[in-house]
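Hi C.,

You asked whether I'd gotten around to modeling the 696-residue construct. I have! Everything is below, sequence then structure, no commentary in between.
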Amino acid sequence: MMLDSSIEFLKGIGPEKAKIIRAVLGISTVEDFLTFFPIRYIDKSKIVNVADLTEETSAEIQLKGKITDVQELTYGKGQKRLTAKFRDATGTIELVWFRYSKWMKEQIPIHREIFIFGKINLFNGVFSMSHPEIETDEKKALSGTLLPIYSSSEKLSKRGINNKFFQNVVAEILRNLPALIQENLPNSLLRNLKLMNRLQAYANIHFPQDLAHFEQANRRLKFEEAFFFQLGYALKKHHHKTSMVGNPFPIIGKYFTEFYDHHIPFELTGAQKKVLKEIRNDLKKPVQMNRLLQGDVGSGKTMVALLSMLMALDNGFQSCLMAPTEILAQQHYNGISELLKGSNVTVRLLTGSTKTADRKIIHQELLSGELSILIGTHAVLEEVVQFQNLGLAIIDEQHRFGVAQRARLWAKNKIPPHILVMTATPIPRTLAMSFYSDLDVSVIDELPVGRKAIITAHRREKDRLSVFRFVQDEILKGRQAYFVYPLIEESETMDYKNLMENLEHITEFFSDCNVTMLHGRMKPDEKEKNMAYFASGKAQIMVATTVIEVGVNVPNASVMVIESAERFGLSQLHQLRGRVGRGAEQSYCILLTSDQLSRDSRTRIKTMTETNDGFRISEVDMQLRGPGDLLGTQQSGVIDFKKLDLLTDAHIIKVAQTTVEQLIQLDPTLQHADHQSLRQYYIQQYRGKNKWGQIS
């Protein structure tokens, strides 16, 4: 028997059963069976008397007695069921089998002392047990261990592939386990972390001696998964830092100094200064920077990006900033151009809607080196876009770009540019530790001075008039407002607010105001025109879809009304809220919902009204949606842990991360004698699978 042996050669399986098990459970090899962990455990050390059964007896129990009176009954349209009486010294219950075969009927031991196990039902004052497990061996029946319950299905049960079958197969594998697996963690690590060895862990996860042994086995197997997952990232990161050459930027020169000393419009926060220092330390080295910059909405990431690009310029290098949408690219371009007004730094915008004549100028200026900073969308990645000397590539909202797209940026220079990835969607701590640990992470965790926390309120449909009046009062103070809707045309299946329909209502109620509109189906120049109209203050209200979710920056807009707020995800609500609160005035976010809310919707709305902290919100979002959904389809496929849970095992993940960091510091190529089994296991299991390459 080997780990990769087919299950059909295991005792009691054979080709037919193997085919069914493979189809239903996806189990093909001995190793698959070994990691087919129980979903729960039962305690068969006790026997219950029939006389002691009550209405409250809901758990699975074990009885000792004899089966009598087996008979077939016909019911319904020719359907049959098998029934029997089960008696012990204190009373009688009924046994019933709704699905059975002739062979199974013949196997029932009649008038012999046996043990039955199953769930008790009570109907019309009569206790019964459906499809009981039958055991004739007293030693097996009264096993002192906790017995495993495995996931199964009706299709399997009909063919005799029941829980007892799984227990027997796994027990057979465990008997051969010493020849199948080796310890894959160093002895020193097992001692320091008080971890169970691998053999004991597998034995006690399937057949625990007691609850304490189960918990130790569970902890060991979770740690093992977290450890090797982290090890992959750590080896990748070490390889990157030791072999990925980057252009060093040793100089802080006139471009950076002039802007920092004379043109920066506000005092940088402590967090911005700390992050700039981290980036500066990276850029000084002849190693490619690979850094993730996390910052909540409105925390000042763009300023950090601009100062980083000026460092590149001081060292004779060009920079590009790539955004996922034209609106966001335009916003970055407008903001950075405004900040650099009066300097001799050339900034240009390249998107899908850039005119051919303008593209030619951009291409020429990039090649000549005349163009210092290029801001754009996916258009930046086109083959025709060639730089003279690209030194820094900044990617905003990286989860919106595919891996292949991001890789194309690397090819824009012989020595790959330094990479700074920015995200305004805070990543939960366990996800950051697990899926971004090959990147160096910087966090801007404070808002610029003078910003007031946004007040968020929940209102229902019946409050609509008072909400409109509140918005009216804010507009009279000289402020502006957003109304955001989920859809732009009627849906027969969902009663979403309709953007076009509501535009009329808002125009009618706010008859003294100029109202503009923004949605995804508008042409780029139309979007830009409407956005500029609102940003200039000529329009007091913008009616929009979630196209404004990222990057729109109008400091005078102080009210955000989100219609049908229960239809939005938590991170989306948080991003939308971040469109206000960008000026010195008090800002408000009003979540308008229907009266009937699901439990998850109530949790989302409550979280939004209780906190402005994006990291706290991201944790709740992960609990509601699960880590796979949060990472996006591109990255959900890498979450195939058998035991580890990113929601509940933060402590184990942290310990694994620290352990791996210490290991790599001590032995970066895993050459020590104590690390050979670990190295061998890693090579066999993970190398070449490119599991980690799917992410960064």
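If it helps when you're writing up: The two ends are 39 Å apart (CA to CA).

Thanks,
B.
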